[in-house]
Structures are given as structure tokens and as C-alpha cells.
Design brief:
- The chain is of the alpha+beta class.
- It has one domain.
- 34% of the residues lie in helices and 18% in strands.
- A 3-stranded antiparallel sheet has the order 1-3-2. A 3-stranded antiparallel sheet has the order 6-7-8, with helices on one face.
């Protein structure tokens, strides 16, 4: 998973990934963030699926001055970035500045984190995010996605 050694790379990027509609989290992840003293910035979609209240600009409310306030306890979905799930496959974002700094072990850890994200998170959120799809797709075009092949 992407660790604190990489957080400066993310900060220089401006937290672009945090401007793609916030993040998704399970109830236990939300509880952990709130227990750590952070304000509850999540909207409940289902009993175990939450999304950050990203507002009209689609920016995660935990992004402050291009830095993630909850980086050390961020949800699994954030931990696996720049690994992106689409059409049932894991891809990495080629033009994410972090990608070039990830080792094979880093990619493997990101993929393992991706496997831990409950499928319910992805299925529950599709309907909620549908109205924002074109805006998110437009922002995602900045990155080129490629399937992950670990040899």
C-alpha cells in the first residue's frame, strides 16, 4: 500500500485523486476515522457503505492544502491508489505521479488491499455516483489506465 514515504509525491500532485469524488469507506473505517478525532464527513449509502460528502466540486473533505488529513488511517480504497478497479479488472494509472515510484512489491500490496475492499462498497455506490459520472470521467481522462500484469 502507498505509505508515508510517498505522501510528498501526492502532495506535489495536489491530491488529484482526492478530487475524483472523494472516497468510499466501510462502517468500521468511518468509525476508526471518527474515533481518531476527525469530524464525520461521510454520507451513509447502506449499512456498510459510506461516501465522503464531496460537495459540488467532487473534492474529498479531508483534503486540506493538497494533503490528506486522514492519510495514516485512510480507507482501503485510498490505500490502494493508484490501483483503480474498472470492469472487474485492476488497472494502474500510468500518469499518476506516484505510479513511477511504486515497486513490484508496492503494486502487489495495493492489489492485496484492493481484494480486501468489500464488493458491497462498489455495488452500493454505483447508483449514488451516477449523476457525477461525466464529471468524474472527465477528470479521469488525465490518467491513462493499463491492466496490471505482474511477472
Amino acid at each position: 500500500m502507498v505509505d508515508n514515504n510517498h505522501s510528498n509525491i501526492c502532495k506535489r500532485c495536489g491530491g488529484y485523486c482526492c478530487k475524483l469524488g472523494g472516497t468510499l469507506a466501510t462502517k468500521s473505517e468511518v468509525d476508526r476515522i471518527i474515533a481518531a478525532g476527525y469530524p464525520n464527513q461521510f454520507i451513509e449509502i447502506t449499512e456498510n457503505c459510506y461516501v465522503t460528502d464531496f460537495g459540488k466540486e467532487l473534492v474529498c473533505p479531508y483534503l486540506k492544502d493538497s494533503t490528506c488529513e486522514i492519510y495514516h488511517i485512510r480507507p482501503l480504497l485510498c490505500q490502494k491508489y493508484p490501483i483503480f478497479s474498472t470492469d472487474g479488472e485492476e488497472h494502474f494509472l500510468v500518469h499518476c505521479p506516484l505510479t513511477q515510484h511504486l515497486s513490484k512489491d508496492d503494486l502487489t500490496q495495493c492489489i492485496e488491499a484492493a481484494l480486501e475492499v468489500p464488493e458491497e462498497i462498489f455495488t452500493s455506490i454505483q447508483r449514488f455516483m451516477a449523476p457525477f459520472g461525466s464529471k468524474i470521467d472527465g477528470r479521469m481522462r488525465k490518467f491513462r489506465m493499463e491492466p496490471i500484469v505482474l511477472e
